[in-house]
Design brief:
single chain, 329 residues, two-stranded antiparallel ribbon
Length: 329
């Protein structure tokens, strides 16, 4: 276990380094100059040179990247005219647009995206696994055909359309719910859930369809295995066979998919956050790309990579816990 975690940690650090280097290279190959945007209208060449030096853009690309890596591990000092600002490790720099620490911006946005991802994932798993189990145990019956039809409809329906319909129905016509406005869980748990229920449903549509289809296929494959037929031959009740033997094998593929989906929602639910006005990581990334805010883009990219690495590592451990035949090497 320790050896496996060590190897995954080393590999994850290598992936994050490659990601950050690629982002730096792509932004410096782009024709836009963030110093020009920061300088504003009526910018003179002298003023532009001062702004570029203050933003750290006057140094060669590899020097800037090395300073960025130093800031992550040991912290970094930033010269702001007559004063010096120390950014403690892990320092991801300061936003070109707002001059705020990137770490602070991410910490402010992560709870929103995590709340959105967690609720949508729980809802998707509950509905998807439930529908997949009922469909798998009633193969070729009317409920099975109904679930298959809903699964296809869920795959074909875009998130923004589901979100728009939910807003029109529950917030405009029925007026059962207010327009979503993020409320921290620590402030009011009830308002937190009430304002996130519609985004959860919008995100859960496609995931529920995927989980239902995967559970149904896994259950049918598991029920056809030899040990299931042997258990039936010994007269073990069907319910016990389903819950203690077949279900465990059917849920194995969901472990990896759930980890990847949860990590992906946290950092890529741009459409959902934009439609429902949620100030999450996706919104932060869109604004940073539009403003060529390199430190924020690199920070979000590293956060995405870190979450993906941790999610895949957790999936490997859970996979081994669910299925004793799996060995970590």
């Amino acid at each position: 276990m320790i050896g496996h975690l060590t190897r995954r940690l080393v590999g994850g650090v290598a992936v994050l380094l490659v990601l950050s280097a690629l982002i730096y290279a792509l932004f410096y190959l782009a024709p836009s100059d963030p110093a020009i945007l920061a300088c504003g209208k009526g910018c003179t060449p002298e003023r532009l040179a001062d702004v570029r030096a203050a933003m750290g853009l006057a140094d060669p690309v590899w020097t800037q990247y090395w300073h960025f890596l130093q800031g992550i591990f040991t912290g970094r000092d930033y010269s702001l005219g007559p004063t010096v600002r120390h950014c403690p490790a892990p320092c991801l720099g300061y936003s070109f647009e707002t001059s705020q620490p990137v770490t602070t911006l991410l910490l402010d946005r992560v709870p929103v995206s995590f709340s959105l991802a967690l609720g949508a994932e729980i809802l998707s798993l509950a509905l998807g696994i439930g529908a997949g189990l009922l469909s798998g145990t009633r193969r070729f019956r009317w409920f099975d055909r109904l679930v298959n039809g809903l699964v296809l409809a869920g795959y074909a329906t875009p998130v923004f359309l589901v979100g728009l319909l939910l807003l029109l129905l529950f917030c405009v016509h029925l007026q059962w719910l207010p327009f979503p406005q993020y409320v921290p869980f620590t402030t009011d748990p009830l308002l937190w859930a009430q304002n996130l229920i519609l985004p959860w449903i919008a995100l859960a549509v496609i995931q529920t369809a995927a989980y239902a289809r995967l559970t149904r296929a896994g259950l049918q494959e598991s029920l056809a295995e030899d040990h299931i037929r042997t258990a039936r031959a010994y007269g073990i009740p069907e319910r016990r066979i389903l819950w203690r033997k077949a279900l465990r094998g059917a849920l194995l593929p969901l472990v990896t998919l759930t980890a990847v989906d949860l990590a992906g929602i946290i950092t890529s639910a741009v459409l959902t956050e934009t439609m429902f006005g949620l100030p999450g990581v996706g919104q932060l990334l869109v604004g940073a790309v539009n403003q060529i805010d390199l430190p924020v883009v690199v920070g979000v990219t590293l956060l995405t990579g870190l979450i993906m690495v941790l999610a895949n590592t957790a999936a490997d451990l859970l996979y081994a816990a669910v299925d004793p035949r799996v060995q970590l090497r």
